[in-house]
Design a protein that fits this description.
The structure holds 2 protein chains of 2 kinds. Chain A is mostly helical. Chain A is 72% helix and 2% strand. In chain A, helix 4 (72-103) packs across helix 9 (179-190) and helix 4 packs antiparallel against helix 12. The longest helix of chain A is centred in the N-terminal third of the chain and has 40 residues, at 8-47. The chains are: A mainly alpha, B mainly alpha. At the A-B interface, helix 2, helix 4, helix 5, helix 6 and helix 7 of A face helix 2, helix 5, helix 6, helix 7 and helix 8 of B.
Amino acid sequence: MSATTLPLGTRIAKAWHRHKWSYFFIAPSMILFGIFIGYPVLRAVVMAFQKVTLRGSTWIGLQNFRDVFASQLFIDSMWHTFIYAFFVVAAWITSSLIVAALLQPLANRFQSLFRGAFYLPYVISIIVISLVWIWIFEPDYGFFNFLLRSLGLPRVLWLQNPDMALWSIIISTVLVVPGTGVVLYSASIGSIPRELYEAAEVEGANGIQKWMRITVPLLKPTTLYLMVIYTIAGFQIFERVYIMTGGGPINRTTTIVQLIYMTAFSDFNFGRASAQALILFAIIAIFSFFQFKVLSTDVEY
Amino acid sequence: MSETTGADVKRPARWSRRRLRRRLPNILILLLLTLVAIVSLFPLYWLFATALTPASATIKLPPELIPSEPTLENFRNIIKLSGQGKLKLPGQVIAMPRMLLWFVNTLALALISTGIHVLFDTMAGYAFAKRKFPGSNLFFWMILAALMIPGQVTLVPLYLMISEFKLVDTFLGVLMPGLADVIGIFLLKQYIQTLPSELEEAARIDGASEWQAFTRIIIPLAAPAMAVTAIFAFQRYWNAFLWPLVILQSPDKFTLQVGLSYIYNSEFGTNYGLLMSGAALASIPMILFFFAFQRYFMQGLRVGAVKG
């Protein structure tokens, strides 16, 4: 009570004296955060409504958004991104769940060996991985066409054929089981109480019933988390496309981020690039929200 | 018990029919998983196999699945053909092949970024976990909100800012925006919250300053979480591509990832032996790093999942 009767200046001085170390501890992160995240986000929002050149900017209202939605290339790249994200999320969730379930009955040393093996490709940069895939997809001497030839099949122009290129990029992504998913599913399966399965066995449940009625429902929180992070990663696909095809042939693999990159750093149309980035943000936010709504019905052990 | 002793006495019984039948499902699972792992790891294997195959044998049909005459020829060539670069240190200039220069650049950037990043994140994580102060909730919610924003939103404004600061094509321009990474704060806050407060209080009663209480009590206790944060940060900085690609222009300043895409777009872009040896050089440190800290990687993944 007495504190409130003191003059405002004195109260601020006292609070500052009490809390100055707290502010000191958060200051470096908060200053960096303000300069390199907070301010750029605000500036991106403003720029989306401007025509921005290196010489200056003028307010043009919703023109950037109108241009973006009127552009066939944007609609195409949206479509490519959706196809990529859909197949990658579906394949990654399925494959990591199956691998994690298969790991469960094995001895601990095998489990950790396999977890390490499946995670290893994910510590390597996507640039390196993409270069290897270019080599695997190489038309004359690449490994994939060697396999096809050994089977007596005609060769495929994996990255050069406009109808094939996007699928090749998807294949290069889904053939590698995602390490994060395997590790997380395998931890969650391990923490399901054994009694649940024993009770189900007493009641005469078979393996498939136990799997569908106990394991899959109890893994829902993990599935939700993985779906959200994989969807976000899928929508943000860039490096693979940039290295493997550069968005070609004839823009048939251009994804949203590749388009943002080209709009900003080839066309130097910064305003339109900001509008595209905000649209991507909105799509990601809507999808994450939707996934939470659908999947986060309460799960209890 | 009796079964074990039985196996000791009669050695062939190790693979008695009963045992085999009991173990068969696991053996089949093991085989199946091995097959899946081979497919998953194949690109990585092919990277090293091609890097070790002589250039003349790379474009041969059928390809050699196992290099019959492994050689380091490609590695020597990529180091030579990447061109001569100059490492500019204060006071002296050292000439070295660009491949090595890129290695030095990447290592220096990753180490400096990781060090600063972990220190700042630990400080903030500590403040949010243990100290009550006006605005703490507001600041923390701002951080959580920032986690949702994809990097592409800030890419263009950041580029314009860096060019206004005249920091395009400088290491500082690459380094600074990368430091504003907030996920570590979240992780460290969660961990430091679980630590007892008594030690810190005792240190204060003994006359330690707030900074000393932080460095002598909190840092040693938070070391495991700091290690996890550092490992993921280092991996991210080592593999970073888009931002360095946008900022760096002179080949002598490239990082390994940007340098690899530069080589791929150069006259050597279709010499896959060369390309793979460059890619292998860029990956070997990360592979060793992973094997050294595998335990922390696995822990970190699970801590990250707590959010969901």
